[in-house]
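Please check the following for our workbook:

***
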Amino acid sequence: MTTDAPWLIAGLGNPGPWFRLTRHNAGFLAVDRLAERYGARFRRRGIGAVVAEIEVDGRQVLLAKPLWWSINLSGRPVAALLRRYGVPVERLVVVQDDLDFAYGTGKLKRGGGPGGHNGVRSVGEVLGTRDFVRLRFGIGRPPKGQSVGDYVLKKFSDGELAAMPQVTDRCADALETLVRLGLNRAQDALNVSA
């Protein structure tokens, strides 16, 4: 991996205004927050995604939101972005919602299985590797009697939305630390409860 290669941080979500504040769009919300910090705007690219470009301490970082009709098909646009911008898989970060963590918590890790997340599964299958970094944005478990499918497509509660700026700031802090100082330091910053 060349030291001047760019980073690609791909937030996963479903396109369209109806899905904007749903739990399955946590990845979009986290990359939106990082783009806001730098005053960057997302622009449509001809590769099934919108992309914003920022610079973190002199390092080029591409923020992306795949826009295929479903989060479950995120792999093809992510792979196209890697090829187009010459990003090695070691510098790919996928930001996803995760049922295994309470809201307001998260975890950064390299590799591992998709844990039932079809968007992450798609990225791994299309790339032929799972050796990318994942930021797992906790959304908690559905209440008893509610299906996972219904839960992830439900909008965040008023209380969760009120806390969203702090939660997405923690994600953005961890992503900046990852680019600046590496995975171990970023893990130390994020892998704790809010």
Observations:
- The first helix runs from residue 26 to 37.
- The two ends are 33 Å apart (CA to CA).
- The chain has six helices and seven strands.
- The chain has a mean pLDDT of 90.
